[in-house]
Amino acid sequence: MEKFFKMKERGSSVGTEVVSGLTTFLAMAYIIAVNPTLLSAAGVPYNAALTATCFGAAIMTAAMGLISNRPVALASGMGINAIVAFTLCGDTVGVDWRVAMAVVFLEGIVILLLVICGLRKAIMDAIPVSLRHAIGIGIGLFIAFIGLKGGQIVVGDYSTLLTFGDFTSPACIVAFISIAVAVILVAMNVKGALIISIIAAVIVGIPLGVTTFPTNWDFGLDFSTFAAPFQIDPDSGTLAIVQVFAQPMLLMFVFSLLMSDFFDTMGTVEAIGMRANFVDKDGNVEDLQKILLVDSAAAAVGGFMGASSITSYAESTSGCSAGARTGFSSIVVACMFIIFAFLSPLVQMVSESATCGALVVVGYLMMCDAANIDWSTIENAFPAFITIAGIPLTYSITDGIGLGFIAYIVVMIAKGKIKEIKPLMWVATAAFLVMFITM
User: What are the φ and ψ backbone dihedral angles of 163, each rounded to 5 degrees?
Assistant: First the structure.
């Protein structure tokens, strides 16, 4: 096992990888409860969506661990699942969920071909170093914001959009406790600090009513969504995948989902690499082609299994912060997804307040990378600033990156440095403009 995963060589151990894997799983386990709920709104049978979610995440996370040997966990992506449920299957388009999964499947195939051709890696290599660092920092703020929002420390407000939550509410109390435990243990260099903070918050949440006990253990496996694109669309009587080519508007959704998957993963992998030390001083990610290959295949697998698009999770940074350095932690995450396909109600005991501390600490750790950005020149500093601010404020990694790319092109033109812009940056920025205009 040591020869394959190289744990000692990367400064890790079996124990560290196990704890880190559990940390990552708990940070992203909400998807087991959320994804089936969203997909059921699109007409997907709940138990089938739950089975597809767990097995899809397990298969592709295990594949990532074995093929790339990097601590990257995958599961159904938030955002695309909402597009499937409320746009493709909602009133906007109104197709059957099988057709929606066919759209996801085709998007995955296209992006896989782009990886095989080397285009996806080439675009990542064309991004300036300052923007690469900015993407990781922006995702860190995004993750921290998700934690604060989930813990109800930050809540919506009609007049100011956001405001401070009710400090005395049970959810807020548990969230603050999770932050305090996480920060104190990290400051004391306690191994497994983040997972301990999650467990502690779950326990504290019991008497406060934040942690809820499962009431229904009847979660039998249901594989009826598998091969969804090749099932019969009940509305047309033809294969679901045929309907995508029969409706040009659906092909536009293939492009839109491709853009989201393409750049979400790019930013996420960069952020994970920085936390797990497989990004060099120039911002180049080691084993990038292998990671992108698995991630791209995962999108197609998600559509095929009926789980929506499966993608790399930024929450993997929580495991990296706990010490994950190899693909063995991904194997641990995969095993947990398989186990919880049968015990999913237990995941619902881990509230958003319980994971708040882990996500906030991860945000702090990723923010430390700001020192690596050259803030003395506007062509480096301004696009980086726009990216860092754009990701959390638009609540979208893709949109934040797009704004940063556009800002970079504008500033470089203003500085008379057009020749220094790499061709693929022009291509990527043009694609973002098309996406923003047509979205």
Answer: -155, 175
